[in-house]
Amino acid sequence: MGSNMAMWRVRWWRSLMGLLVAAGLAACSMPPPSEGNHSGSQTAVMAETSSAPIAAPQAAKAQSTLGTQWGEGRESVTKAVQASRLTPDRPLDMGQMRYSDEDSIRRALGRDAEQQTNALLADGDVELQLLGGNGAALRIFSSRGAKDFHVAGRNGERYELVYTNRSKRYYEVVATVDGLDVLSGQPGSIQSAGYLLRPGERLVIDGFRKSDREVAAFRFSAKGRAYANNTPAGDARNVGVIGTALFEVRLDERDPDLPRRRAPEVELRDPRDPSAFPADGRQYAPPPQYRR
Are 148 and 60 in contact (CB under 8 A)? Predict the structure, then answer.
């Protein structure tokens, strides 16, 4: 799918007025299929948020047999937008789903397993699907009457997170894979950057962000090859889980499509060199460091 389309990311910081200054991300978005004539490009919002991980796995019936590897590079351009969270410290909704191979899921959930193709967030305002490399929706299983969602994947298969906004509201989507933020590669937090999801539009997140023009594709892999198991920020306990935090936002400018000044690139430095701001560094995910 056309990943050269622009998406938006939002950066925010706390102030007395609760002002959000946003920087827009252009990942791989596109208008939702059918259901009305929705014009406009996909969008993404990025915001700086708090510190508690949003994707730490809770008790689940099916143990994951898969992880997500840092895959091939895919073009995905980002832009900037100004927006404010209506409730900066409290997501409107949070969701989590585990993933594993289908046989393991079926054995764990037994005869009561129910099957669906998407999960609903914010009382149905937003739909979440996982699409495989062929564009088909991956199967989502749960116990009857429960929301213990399990996605069936296959080793080596590429996948995408697809969020569709069925409402007239603007949302910010903060997403994690294997406990790592998809934008920064750091431990997931509701205080982290997110993507802007406009009314009636569809947001496709198809990898860990490498730069403002490229992502590393999500690919199911053996757990030992998972990005989270091969980067210092990762935690093996979180491999096999996908998290979403959803915030309602208000745009702080009339026309976010207007060109605006780019923020200066962060210069990478040798960690052995002295620095006046040692906590500052990469704003995007660093590449993996495979042990063997």
Answer: yes
